[in-house]
């Protein structure tokens, strides 16, 4: 069993920085060039490196902190925003495992069943840290065989090995302050020369219980696997409708894509936890209110040709849509909603291409074209139950993969067994005759035919024709027909209707 712990030691600071500061390019930039501190009860609780360089330390009064750094930016702690950030991180973690546990300042994940799928623990760790960085959060990560042990290790700086399965090497050297139940007794334990977990384990259990209570030993046993642990798993919401307040007025679509990806990270984790894929999503851009207009929104709906939960693919489609958008006013907030989802298991890996993978690649190409050119710009050929060649083909708009499969099945059922040209002229071309033969660059030799078509009496467009496959001296294969009734038409009665490739 492998547990991964993600500890967010600067969570209040990360929340404040990602919601208040923005770089010139539009991307959120947590490393601002000014001292920043988060205060609680008029005391500094967390500070960034620039504040530490000015001599500001946690526990210092807010007044003294401002005296040390005149440019200090101090903000009150926002517990609600911290809870929201933890939920965003949990949704991101659901991409890797459904077994996620929320902690006051981090997450726990049981990833044993996911190791092979994601190419081992190092790959999972790298993707987790990258995803949290996109959310504007900074984490310390560690892994071991128990949840409590992993959480202890994640609270320590400068671990030599991120993943360690030997309890003696992984936990014994850790300082006592990582234990939650040891916090009230740190001074007492330090007074008797006990400063590490290993030293605490070597003390008599009876004396520890009598002096510090049973909970200290129970936490110790849970970390070393001697006592079972019970967890309350994080449950994803039944519907996905996430909101993101932007740090400033955004007037460029490039900055919107950066912010929207934070919402897509949560969406893909939510979809993975529900074993589902999305068919349609809507990104709503909420604009700033002005004197001329009230608060308005611009909805961007993306309908996928095939269900997907691939974040890179969804990001690509959203980039294409945003590139075509002209903002009516600055944007101050984004919301992302999953309009339609379908249940879908994780895809199997394939050594060789299959019809399923080919269809997926085709569907993604169509989705990208629709995102760039518009939903009605991509069309496909479809057979119609009409024997007249010019009316036997339609070009409906491509709507979904299921629709394409249905039309293809109808096409194969209604397609004539007779040969048809690959290029059909929009209007038949009248031909002359020489020596009683139709002529196109040279006299034509009739190879096959006639194929008689007599249809269209129901819409006053009667077609009474005899079709032939002909060849000229340049060895071109042509599809020609002769009218059976001339009516008001003058000429030879021969027409060219298509070319064979």
Quick rundown:
The chain is α+β, with helices and mostly antiparallel strands and 501 residues long. The chain is built from 15 helices and 19 strands. It folds into 4 domains: 184 residues, 2-Layer Sandwich (Alpha-Beta Plaits), CATH 3.30.70.270; 127 residues, 2-Layer Sandwich (Dna Ligase, domain 1); 33 residues, no CATH class; 77 residues.
CATH architecture of the largest domain: 2-Layer Sandwich
Overall shape: it is elongated
Q: What is the multimeric organization of the chains shown?
A: single chain
Number of domains: 4
| CATH H-level superfamily of the largest domain | Reverse transcriptase/Diguanylate cyclase domain
InterPro entries: DNA/RNA_pol_sf (IPR043502), SulA_CellDiv_inhibitor (IPR050356), UmuC (IPR001126)
Pfam families: IMS
Protein name: DNA polymerase
Keywords: DNA damage
Explain what this protein looks like in three dimensions.
The chain has 501 residues and is an alpha+beta fold. The protein has 15 helices and 19 strands. It has helices spanning 11-20, 49-53, 62-68, 79-93, 121-134, 147-154, 167-171, 186-191, 197-201, 205-212, 214-223, 253-273, 311-323, 355-373, 401-414; strands spanning 3-7, 36-40, 43-47, 73-76, 100-103, 106-110, 140-144, 241-250, 276-287, 297-308, 331-343, 382-383, 393-394, 423-434, 437-439, 445-455, 463-471, 477-483, 494-499. Strand 2 and strand 3 (43-47) form a beta hairpin.
